[in-house]
Amino acid sequence: MSQNIQNAKALINTFATGDLDTARHLLAPDYIQHNQAYATGAAAFISAVEGLAQASVKTTVQTIRAFEDGDKVFLHTIYNFAGSGEQVAFDIFRFNAEGKIAEHWDNLDALAEPNPSGRTQIDGVVETTATDKEATRTLVTNFVQDVLHGKNLDKLTSYFDGDNYIQHNAGIADGLSGLGAALVALAEAGLEMVYKETYQVLAEDDFALAISEGEFAGRHVAFYDLFRVENGYIAEHWVVIQDIVTEAEAANDNGKF
């Protein structure tokens, strides 16, 4: 495990431990926060840690997956902030040249029941398999543009090995057939899912995380889609979708992305 991954995990664990000294040590003074519920800067993060430490119910943090791409670490985590209920999250941390955590993006949603195939939002393959990460990034980037953005929908089947596709979306069954059935059901219910812009595609080995903005069921949302690639095909998928609040409602001016 790299030092940056260790430090990213140590930072989010301060929510559970209340260790203010560790938070102070890991954060850059000019830390940039993109979580819309918190003010920007290291002091605001430390204040949040302090507040959780004083809560009557202990916060729990469980990191399921951890990856690294250049100066960024991205984590797949289950949080329960002061007993408020389990949330599934993706966190992205950017490290500066001094090894301090300088910027953070995330997406969170309530942990749901297993999907029609009995899969949860967090189970499945955890460890990476040595693979050319740039090939993974290219495949996922092309899939996001061609299929999720709808630019070349005729290429849909070329991204999958037949019907072999493991799905962790809480509302969709396994397989390309499950995805197709879900999209038809959404369309019939008038619940349109639209990807408008993709800002980052981070990759390590056979995993890639795509960060996008769009609409779902008429709501302005952020999509964080994690894909695992196998033998040149999309093999597994996890997603967290979160509403984006207005600029007036946000606690900082840094934007969601």
UniProtKB/TrEMBL annotation:
InterPro entries: Cyclase_SnoaL-like, NTF2-like_dom_sf, SnoaL-like. Pfam families: SnoaL_2. It comes from the Bacteria. Residues 9-104 form the SnoaL-like domain. Gene3D superfamilies: 3.10.450.50. This is Nuclear transport factor 2 family protein. It comes from Streptococcus caprae.
